[in-house]
Amino acid sequence: MRDLPDPNRLRLLVDVAHHGSIAGAARANGITASAVSQQITTLERECGVPLLERLPRGVALTAAGEVLAERGRGLVRLLEATRGDIDGFDDHLVGRVRIGTIASAAQALVLPALTHLRRLHPDIDAIVTVAEPHSSLAALHEGRIDLALVDVYEHAPMPIPPRVSATTVHREPLVLIGREPFPEGTTLSDLADAPWVMPPPEAACGQSVRYACRQAGFEPQVRWETDDLQLLSRAVAAGQGVTLLPQLAIDVDRPGLHTAIPAGVRLGREIRAAVRSGERNRPLLRAVTEALQSA
């Protein structure tokens, strides 16, 4: 009877499958491509079948490799949940936590939260990746990160995947941003003839703002479209139009920007910390979530 596959090698195979290359898996794990290749070769020897097909550019999983990678994803999630259960018996927070976060929350929430935690628990090792919500949730599902920080806008619902638990860590309004001060009581309909800059319609923020404008009786005249919320602030300061953005996304240090809460409408977003349901009681993840709520 052959030995069971090594879990650490299985994790590497899962990463190779996701990145499509040994080099990508090596970067994700902070080791050399040679080390990954050696571990995969050992895993193939343990299993007794080829798992990778070496191509001129990258690699492809064999049929056996696909089956093992899929089983490996489930095993990795199970081991992480088990680790969380064991950690629950120890008040000392230690270990690695991998976080995927939206850009606007990285500076305002993640940095102060991790700074506070590291001061109290210096053995915490955090790895942070800035990514869009759908990418972070996919990485969470595949076991490549431990916590996904995502945003949910009014009128643009985002379904949370099964077996994922989400906790709201921050709420904020969407605010008007313009180059000139807004008169008191400005409504969205007052800006029907103004040029607008905003995220594209497929982005949650863009969906929410367009919905609000249509409810106010007009289709916004969009002059700039970009997912870069900081760039939208700069476009407003340059006189390209007005916009409606979450408070955390505003480039507050940029001169020439004026803000106001639009009258007659309540628009906002929530930032949520999502973890795999089996790990929601893991002390390290609970501590990170609580630190984000306090940031």
From TrEMBL:
Molecular functions per Gene Ontology: DNA binding; DNA-binding transcription factor activity
InterPro entries: LysR_HTH_N, LysR_subst-bd, WH-like_DNA-bd_sf, WH_DNA-bd_sf
GO cellular component, one term: protein-DNA complex
Keywords linked to the UniProt accession: DNA-binding, Transcription, Transcription regulation
Stretches assigned to coiled coil: none
Residues covered by the HTH lysR-type domain: 5-62
Family per record: Belongs to the LysR transcriptional regulatory family.
Protein name, per record: LysR family transcriptional regulator
Species this chain originates from: Aeromicrobium phoceense
